[in-house]
Amino acid sequence: MEEKGRISITNIAILVFLSIIGDCVLVYPSLITGISKQDAWISSFLSIPAGLALLLLLLRVHQLYPDLTFIQLSQRILGPWFGALISIWYLFHLLMNSAIYLREAGDFMNNQTYVMTPLPVINLLLVLVLMWGMYMGLEPIARTAQLMFPLCLAFTLFLILCLLPQCDSQQLKPVMEQDIPKIIEGGIFALSYPFGELAFLLMIFPYVNKQPGLKKSVLLSGLAASVLLSVLLLVSLLVLGPFVTENSVYTSYTLSKKINIGNFLQRIESMMSTAWIITTFVKTILHFYAFTLGITQLLRLHNVRTFLGPSFMILFGMIMVSAPNITYYLDTIIHAWIYWDLTDSIVLPLLLLVVYKLRSKSNHSLGPG
Protein backbone atom coordinates (compact mmCIF):
# COMPACT_ATOMS: atom_id res chain seq x y z
CA MET A 1 0.00 0.00 0.00
CA GLU A 2 1.42 3.36 -0.99
CA GLU A 3 0.52 6.41 1.07
CA LYS A 4 0.03 9.27 -1.39
CA GLY A 5 -0.06 12.07 1.16
CA ARG A 6 3.10 13.99 2.03
CA ILE A 7 3.71 16.21 5.04
CA SER A 8 6.08 19.13 5.52
CA ILE A 9 8.99 19.61 7.91
CA THR A 10 6.76 21.86 10.03
CA ASN A 11 4.09 19.15 10.15
CA ILE A 12 6.48 16.47 11.40
CA ALA A 13 7.96 18.83 14.01
CA ILE A 14 4.48 19.53 15.40
CA LEU A 15 3.57 15.83 15.32
CA VAL A 16 6.73 15.01 17.30
CA PHE A 17 5.92 17.74 19.82
CA LEU A 18 2.32 16.61 20.33
CA SER A 19 3.38 12.95 20.50
CA ILE A 20 5.87 13.68 23.28
CA ILE A 21 3.36 15.78 25.20
CA GLY A 22 0.53 13.34 24.40
CA ASP A 23 -0.95 11.60 27.41
CA CYS A 24 2.10 12.60 29.48
CA VAL A 25 0.77 16.09 30.16
CA LEU A 26 -1.64 14.62 32.73
CA VAL A 27 0.07 11.52 34.15
CA TYR A 28 3.79 12.21 33.68
CA PRO A 29 4.33 14.08 36.99
CA SER A 30 2.77 11.37 39.16
CA LEU A 31 4.61 8.60 37.32
CA ILE A 32 8.12 10.06 37.76
CA THR A 33 7.44 11.37 41.27
CA GLY A 34 6.36 7.89 42.33
CA ILE A 35 9.95 6.78 41.75
CA SER A 36 12.20 9.76 42.53
CA LYS A 37 9.91 11.63 44.98
CA GLN A 38 10.90 15.32 45.31
CA ASP A 39 13.97 14.65 43.12
CA ALA A 40 11.74 13.71 40.17
CA TRP A 41 12.51 17.02 38.46
CA ILE A 42 16.21 16.06 38.41
CA SER A 43 15.39 12.71 36.80
CA SER A 44 13.21 14.45 34.22
CA PHE A 45 15.82 16.99 33.16
CA LEU A 46 18.54 14.32 33.08
CA SER A 47 16.47 12.27 30.63
CA ILE A 48 16.38 15.05 28.02
CA PRO A 49 19.87 14.47 26.50
CA ALA A 50 19.21 10.72 26.36
CA GLY A 51 15.85 11.38 24.70
CA LEU A 52 17.47 13.56 22.04
CA ALA A 53 20.05 10.82 21.45
CA LEU A 54 17.17 8.39 20.91
CA LEU A 55 15.67 10.73 18.32
CA LEU A 56 19.07 10.95 16.62
CA LEU A 57 19.16 7.13 16.47
CA LEU A 58 15.74 7.00 14.81
CA LEU A 59 16.81 9.65 12.31
CA ARG A 60 20.01 7.76 11.56
CA VAL A 61 18.11 4.53 10.85
CA HIS A 62 15.71 6.46 8.63
CA GLN A 63 18.65 7.82 6.63
CA LEU A 64 19.74 4.28 5.67
CA TYR A 65 16.83 4.09 3.23
CA PRO A 66 14.84 7.35 3.39
CA ASP A 67 11.99 6.00 1.26
CA LEU A 68 11.37 2.84 3.30
CA THR A 69 9.30 2.37 6.44
CA PHE A 70 10.39 0.24 9.40
CA ILE A 71 8.58 -2.80 7.99
CA GLN A 72 10.32 -2.47 4.63
CA LEU A 73 13.66 -1.71 6.29
CA SER A 74 13.45 -4.82 8.47
CA GLN A 75 12.81 -7.14 5.55
CA ARG A 76 15.46 -5.48 3.42
CA ILE A 77 18.22 -5.57 6.05
CA LEU A 78 17.31 -8.63 8.14
CA GLY A 79 15.83 -10.77 5.41
CA PRO A 80 12.20 -11.66 4.66
CA TRP A 81 11.66 -14.18 7.48
CA PHE A 82 13.49 -12.61 10.42
CA GLY A 83 12.41 -9.17 9.22
CA ALA A 84 8.77 -10.30 9.22
CA LEU A 85 9.14 -11.67 12.76
CA ILE A 86 10.59 -8.38 14.02
CA SER A 87 7.83 -6.51 12.19
CA ILE A 88 5.10 -8.52 13.95
CA TRP A 89 6.64 -7.69 17.34
CA TYR A 90 6.86 -4.01 16.36
CA LEU A 91 3.29 -3.83 15.04
CA PHE A 92 1.82 -5.53 18.10
CA HIS A 93 3.53 -2.90 20.24
CA LEU A 94 1.93 -0.12 18.16
CA LEU A 95 -1.48 -1.76 18.50
CA MET A 96 -1.17 -2.11 22.28
CA ASN A 97 0.03 1.48 22.66
CA SER A 98 -2.98 2.70 20.67
CA ALA A 99 -5.33 0.72 22.90
CA ILE A 100 -3.71 2.00 26.10
CA TYR A 101 -3.89 5.65 25.01
CA LEU A 102 -7.57 5.40 24.14
CA ARG A 103 -8.21 3.57 27.40
CA GLU A 104 -6.52 6.42 29.30
CA ALA A 105 -8.69 8.98 27.51
CA GLY A 106 -11.84 6.92 28.06
CA ASP A 107 -11.13 6.41 31.78
CA PHE A 108 -10.44 10.11 32.24
CA MET A 109 -13.65 11.20 30.53
CA ASN A 110 -15.65 8.55 32.38
CA ASN A 111 -14.24 9.50 35.80
CA GLN A 112 -14.10 13.29 35.48
CA THR A 113 -16.77 14.48 33.05
CA TYR A 114 -19.17 11.85 31.67
CA VAL A 115 -19.55 9.91 34.90
CA MET A 116 -23.00 8.50 33.98
CA THR A 117 -21.94 7.33 30.52
CA PRO A 118 -20.81 3.68 30.22
CA LEU A 119 -17.11 3.36 29.45
CA PRO A 120 -17.64 1.18 26.33
CA VAL A 121 -19.83 3.92 24.82
CA ILE A 122 -17.08 6.53 25.33
CA ASN A 123 -14.48 4.17 23.87
CA LEU A 124 -16.70 3.44 20.87
CA LEU A 125 -17.10 7.16 20.15
CA LEU A 126 -13.33 7.65 20.37
CA VAL A 127 -12.76 4.73 18.00
CA LEU A 128 -15.26 6.11 15.48
CA VAL A 129 -13.53 9.50 15.45
CA LEU A 130 -10.20 7.72 15.08
CA MET A 131 -11.61 5.72 12.17
CA TRP A 132 -12.72 8.90 10.39
CA GLY A 133 -9.25 10.42 10.78
CA MET A 134 -7.62 7.26 9.49
CA TYR A 135 -9.93 7.22 6.49
CA MET A 136 -8.82 10.76 5.58
CA GLY A 137 -5.11 9.88 5.56
CA LEU A 138 -1.81 11.17 6.92
CA GLU A 139 -1.81 14.64 5.37
CA PRO A 140 -5.18 15.73 6.83
CA ILE A 141 -4.10 14.31 10.19
CA ALA A 142 -0.94 16.41 10.13
CA ARG A 143 -2.76 19.56 9.07
CA THR A 144 -5.40 19.12 11.77
CA ALA A 145 -2.64 18.68 14.36
CA GLN A 146 -1.04 21.88 13.11
CA LEU A 147 -4.33 23.73 13.67
CA MET A 148 -4.72 22.32 17.19
CA PHE A 149 -1.09 22.84 18.21
CA PRO A 150 -1.34 26.54 19.24
CA LEU A 151 -4.39 25.78 21.38
CA CYS A 152 -2.68 22.94 23.27
CA LEU A 153 0.53 24.91 23.75
CA ALA A 154 -1.34 28.01 24.95
CA PHE A 155 -3.40 26.04 27.50
CA THR A 156 -0.33 24.30 28.93
CA LEU A 157 1.72 27.51 29.17
CA PHE A 158 -1.26 29.32 30.69
CA LEU A 159 -1.50 26.64 33.36
CA ILE A 160 2.18 26.95 34.26
CA LEU A 161 2.21 30.75 34.33
CA CYS A 162 -0.91 31.02 36.49
CA LEU A 163 0.58 28.65 39.06
CA LEU A 164 3.92 30.43 39.45
CA PRO A 165 2.72 32.61 42.37
CA GLN A 166 1.82 29.45 44.32
CA CYS A 167 5.23 27.80 43.93
CA ASP A 168 7.07 26.99 47.16
CA SER A 169 10.72 25.96 46.92
CA GLN A 170 10.50 24.27 50.33
CA GLN A 171 8.57 21.44 48.63
CA LEU A 172 11.79 20.33 46.91
CA LYS A 173 13.80 19.96 50.10
CA PRO A 174 15.82 18.04 50.99
CA VAL A 175 17.36 18.03 47.51
CA MET A 176 18.98 14.74 46.46
CA GLU A 177 17.36 12.89 49.35
CA GLN A 178 16.87 9.90 47.06
CA ASP A 179 19.98 7.90 46.29
CA ILE A 180 21.57 8.03 42.85
CA PRO A 181 20.09 4.68 41.65
CA LYS A 182 16.56 5.95 42.35
CA ILE A 183 17.20 9.16 40.44
CA ILE A 184 18.62 7.16 37.54
CA GLU A 185 15.62 4.82 37.63
CA GLY A 186 13.35 7.86 37.43
CA GLY A 187 15.42 9.10 34.50
CA ILE A 188 14.94 5.76 32.70
CA PHE A 189 11.18 6.08 33.16
CA ALA A 190 11.32 9.68 31.92
CA LEU A 191 13.28 8.46 28.88
CA SER A 192 10.90 5.65 28.08
CA TYR A 193 7.83 7.74 28.78
CA PRO A 194 7.55 9.55 26.35
CA PHE A 195 10.70 9.24 24.19
CA GLY A 196 10.55 5.46 24.08
CA GLU A 197 7.09 5.68 22.52
CA LEU A 198 8.39 7.44 19.40
CA ALA A 199 9.38 4.29 17.51
CA PHE A 200 6.33 4.84 15.29
CA LEU A 201 8.21 7.74 13.64
CA LEU A 202 10.07 5.22 11.48
CA MET A 203 6.72 4.60 9.76
CA ILE A 204 6.10 8.35 9.28
CA PHE A 205 9.51 9.74 8.24
CA PRO A 206 9.39 8.32 4.66
CA TYR A 207 6.31 10.46 3.96
CA VAL A 208 7.93 13.75 4.92
CA ASN A 209 8.78 15.99 1.98
CA LYS A 210 12.45 15.70 1.03
CA GLN A 211 13.66 19.07 2.31
CA PRO A 212 16.73 20.08 4.32
CA GLY A 213 16.24 20.63 8.03
CA LEU A 214 14.43 17.44 9.08
CA LYS A 215 16.96 16.52 11.77
CA LYS A 216 17.12 20.04 13.19
CA SER A 217 13.35 20.44 13.30
CA VAL A 218 12.74 17.05 14.95
CA LEU A 219 15.44 17.61 17.57
CA LEU A 220 14.27 21.13 18.40
CA SER A 221 10.70 19.92 18.67
CA GLY A 222 11.76 17.07 20.94
CA LEU A 223 13.81 19.44 23.10
CA ALA A 224 10.95 21.94 23.46
CA ALA A 225 8.39 19.27 24.35
CA SER A 226 10.64 17.52 26.89
CA VAL A 227 11.57 20.81 28.56
CA LEU A 228 7.89 21.72 28.79
CA LEU A 229 7.09 18.38 30.45
CA SER A 230 9.98 18.79 32.88
CA VAL A 231 8.87 22.31 33.80
CA LEU A 232 5.32 21.05 34.32
CA LEU A 233 6.66 18.35 36.64
CA LEU A 234 8.72 20.93 38.55
CA VAL A 235 5.69 23.19 38.96
CA SER A 236 3.64 20.23 40.19
CA LEU A 237 6.22 19.54 42.89
CA LEU A 238 6.47 23.20 43.86
CA VAL A 239 2.70 23.69 44.13
CA LEU A 240 1.34 20.32 45.29
CA GLY A 241 4.39 18.78 46.91
CA PRO A 242 5.79 15.30 46.21
CA PHE A 243 3.15 13.38 48.19
CA VAL A 244 0.10 14.88 46.43
CA THR A 245 1.85 14.78 43.04
CA GLU A 246 2.66 11.10 43.46
CA ASN A 247 -0.82 10.10 44.59
CA SER A 248 -2.79 12.24 42.14
CA VAL A 249 -3.37 10.23 38.96
CA TYR A 250 -4.29 13.26 36.84
CA THR A 251 -1.80 15.74 38.28
CA SER A 252 -2.24 18.51 35.71
CA TYR A 253 -6.01 18.30 36.12
CA THR A 254 -5.53 18.72 39.87
CA LEU A 255 -3.19 21.65 39.26
CA SER A 256 -5.74 23.41 37.07
CA LYS A 257 -8.20 23.36 39.98
CA LYS A 258 -5.69 25.31 42.08
CA ILE A 259 -5.81 28.37 39.83
CA ASN A 260 -7.68 31.28 41.38
CA ILE A 261 -6.80 34.80 40.28
CA GLY A 262 -8.81 37.46 42.12
CA ASN A 263 -11.71 35.05 42.66
CA PHE A 264 -12.49 35.67 39.01
CA LEU A 265 -10.27 33.39 36.93
CA GLN A 266 -10.70 29.90 38.33
CA ARG A 267 -11.92 26.38 37.55
CA ILE A 268 -10.19 26.18 34.17
CA GLU A 269 -9.76 22.40 34.28
CA SER A 270 -11.95 22.10 31.17
CA MET A 271 -9.19 23.87 29.22
CA MET A 272 -6.63 21.38 30.48
CA SER A 273 -8.95 18.50 29.63
CA THR A 274 -9.35 19.80 26.08
CA ALA A 275 -5.59 20.11 25.57
CA TRP A 276 -4.94 16.63 26.97
CA ILE A 277 -7.62 14.92 24.89
CA ILE A 278 -6.31 16.60 21.72
CA THR A 279 -2.67 15.64 22.33
CA THR A 280 -3.58 12.11 23.35
CA PHE A 281 -5.78 11.69 20.28
CA VAL A 282 -2.99 12.88 17.96
CA LYS A 283 -0.55 10.47 19.57
CA THR A 284 -3.07 7.63 19.30
CA ILE A 285 -3.98 8.18 15.69
CA LEU A 286 -0.31 8.32 14.67
CA HIS A 287 0.39 5.03 16.43
CA PHE A 288 -2.63 3.37 14.88
CA TYR A 289 -1.87 4.84 11.46
CA ALA A 290 1.63 3.33 11.74
CA PHE A 291 0.12 -0.01 12.78
CA THR A 292 -2.39 -0.08 9.91
CA LEU A 293 0.17 1.01 7.34
CA GLY A 294 2.66 -1.53 8.65
CA ILE A 295 0.24 -4.48 8.62
CA THR A 296 -0.81 -3.52 5.11
CA GLN A 297 2.81 -3.54 3.93
CA LEU A 298 3.57 -6.77 5.78
CA LEU A 299 0.60 -8.58 4.19
CA ARG A 300 1.24 -6.82 0.84
CA LEU A 301 -2.29 -5.49 0.57
CA HIS A 302 -2.98 -2.94 -2.14
CA ASN A 303 -5.40 -0.73 -0.23
CA VAL A 304 -5.22 0.12 3.45
CA ARG A 305 -8.98 0.75 3.60
CA THR A 306 -9.63 -2.97 3.18
CA PHE A 307 -8.09 -3.51 6.61
CA LEU A 308 -9.66 -0.54 8.43
CA GLY A 309 -12.82 -2.34 9.54
CA PRO A 310 -11.13 -5.40 11.08
CA SER A 311 -8.38 -3.28 12.62
CA PHE A 312 -10.85 -1.07 14.46
CA MET A 313 -12.74 -4.06 15.79
CA ILE A 314 -9.44 -5.42 17.11
CA LEU A 315 -8.60 -2.05 18.63
CA PHE A 316 -11.96 -1.73 20.38
CA GLY A 317 -11.53 -5.15 21.92
CA MET A 318 -7.96 -4.41 23.03
CA ILE A 319 -9.11 -1.18 24.71
CA MET A 320 -11.42 -3.13 26.99
CA VAL A 321 -8.94 -5.87 27.93
CA SER A 322 -5.69 -3.86 28.06
CA ALA A 323 -6.15 -2.77 31.70
CA PRO A 324 -8.98 -2.73 34.23
CA ASN A 325 -8.39 0.98 34.98
CA ILE A 326 -5.79 3.75 34.75
CA THR A 327 -4.58 3.18 38.33
CA TYR A 328 -3.70 -0.46 37.59
CA TYR A 329 -1.90 0.63 34.44
CA LEU A 330 0.23 3.25 36.23
CA ASP A 331 0.95 1.12 39.30
CA THR A 332 1.52 -2.26 37.66
CA ILE A 333 1.74 -2.43 33.88
CA ILE A 334 3.89 0.64 33.23
CA HIS A 335 6.84 -0.76 35.21
CA ALA A 336 7.20 -3.57 32.67
CA TRP A 337 5.90 -1.60 29.68
CA ILE A 338 8.86 0.79 29.64
CA TYR A 339 11.18 -2.05 28.62
CA TRP A 340 8.91 -2.85 25.69
CA ASP A 341 9.05 0.80 24.66
CA LEU A 342 12.84 0.94 24.96
CA THR A 343 13.21 -2.33 23.03
CA ASP A 344 11.30 -0.97 20.05
CA SER A 345 12.84 2.50 20.13
CA ILE A 346 16.47 1.60 20.93
CA VAL A 347 17.23 -2.12 20.57
CA LEU A 348 15.47 -2.71 17.23
CA PRO A 349 16.85 0.43 15.53
CA LEU A 350 20.34 -0.44 16.81
CA LEU A 351 19.90 -3.97 15.47
CA LEU A 352 19.02 -2.63 12.02
CA LEU A 353 21.94 -0.23 12.11
CA VAL A 354 24.48 -2.84 13.23
CA VAL A 355 23.34 -5.49 10.74
CA TYR A 356 23.38 -2.92 7.94
CA LYS A 357 26.97 -1.96 8.79
CA LEU A 358 28.10 -5.58 9.05
CA ARG A 359 26.48 -6.58 5.78
CA SER A 360 27.92 -3.53 4.05
CA LYS A 361 31.44 -4.41 5.25
CA SER A 362 30.93 -8.02 4.17
CA ASN A 363 30.15 -6.80 0.65
CA HIS A 364 26.62 -8.12 0.78
CA SER A 365 24.81 -5.73 -1.51
CA LEU A 366 21.84 -4.06 0.14
CA GLY A 367 21.17 -1.71 -2.70
CA PRO A 368 21.53 2.06 -2.60
CA GLY A 369 20.82 3.69 0.75
UniProtKB/TrEMBL annotation:
Subcellular localization, as worded in the UniProt entry: Membrane
Listed InterPro entries: Spore_GerAB
Origin superkingdom: Bacteria
Transmembrane spans: 12-35, 41-59, 80-102, 114-135, 147-166, 186-208, 220-244, 275-295, 307-330, 336-356
Membrane disposition: Multi-pass membrane protein
Keywords: Germination, Membrane, Transmembrane, Transmembrane helix, Transport
Pfam families tied to this protein: Spore_permease
Family: Belongs to the amino acid-polyamine-organocation (APC) superfamily. Spore germination protein (SGP) (TC 2.A.3.9) family.
Cited PANTHER family: SPORE GERMINATION PROTEIN A2
Listed name of the protein: GerAB/ArcD/ProY family transporter
Organism: Paenibacillus ottowii
